[in-house]
Fold this sequence. Notes:
With 343 residues, the chain is of the alpha+beta class. The chain is 49% helix and 15% strand.
Amino acid sequence: xxxxxxxxxxYQNIAKFDDIISNVEISEKRFIxxxxxxxxxxxxxxxxxxxxxxxxxNHLTTYADTIFTDEFVKMFYRTILSSTNYVxxxxxxxxxxxxxxxxxxxxxxxxxxxxxxxxxxxxxxxxEASKEELxxxxxxxxxxxxxxxxxxxxxxxxxxxxxxxxxxxxGYIDSxxxxxxxxxxxxxxxESVNIDDMEKFFDFIDNVLILVKMYLKNLYIQRTxxxxxxxxxxxxxxxxxxxxxxxxxxxxxxxxKFINDKNALSSEWYVKHDExxxxxxxxxxxxxxEESIQELPDNGHVTLEVWSExxxxxxxxxxxxxxxxxxxKDNIEGTSxxxxxxx
Length: 343
């Protein structure tokens, strides 16, 4: 998935900061270092909050037909009724001729995007989402686990107002929010992040943003795809090398027809493990003669080269694959049309 920080000017110039500091007068070095560290916190928090709201709102508008259920309506009004006067006023302004215009400015309004607040915002779109499931989703994600490992040996500490020993996802997110609040209220950061560790913290937040985007798609798939559309791997012939695995699988005749009609190699594929789904790419398809092919054979028996930078496909574990392009429900049971929601 595309990075959320690669185009950020601050992120692009972190490697130059040591050279910048080394070329200033000794008396000014501490001052320059402090400015860089303060701007780092402000910039990274802005990246965090603005992108989370955009990810959530873009998902809401893209999959409105699936999301707009009776449970969503209940959550929507529960959110409005328990919100600040600012949110209530923006909601009232949106009412015109029995239509409600949802905007991220009021429905996803927050001043402090703590980890618990993130869970609450996700639940405004998918009420069935949970903190426990997101943490489970994170633990299986290899990229974010690498980011966490890098932070564990860095100058970045964990923070939590409620938990003296927070998990990594909560602890590092809340550390950023706490530093930003300290800077906003007192002009001082409660914790100083070394210049050498700034890129690590950026990469962590970048991968949390990607994680949230993937988790939302996971929730969407859980709603829209029947379990019988997944196909179990017969065998994992090769565990990941450069994020590529080779698996053996047999599709039934219906799946062969649908997948070939949609072009197997360019379709949107997901792998399911432990009730959670992760995006993958099919690099090559081979038949029983080990020849590379573009379409599934009539008997459906193939080996697939599967690429994924987010989940390790291992032997002796239960993995299933899904072609999302082909198999999803057209209508979601319980979807309500009693109000018109405009975007």
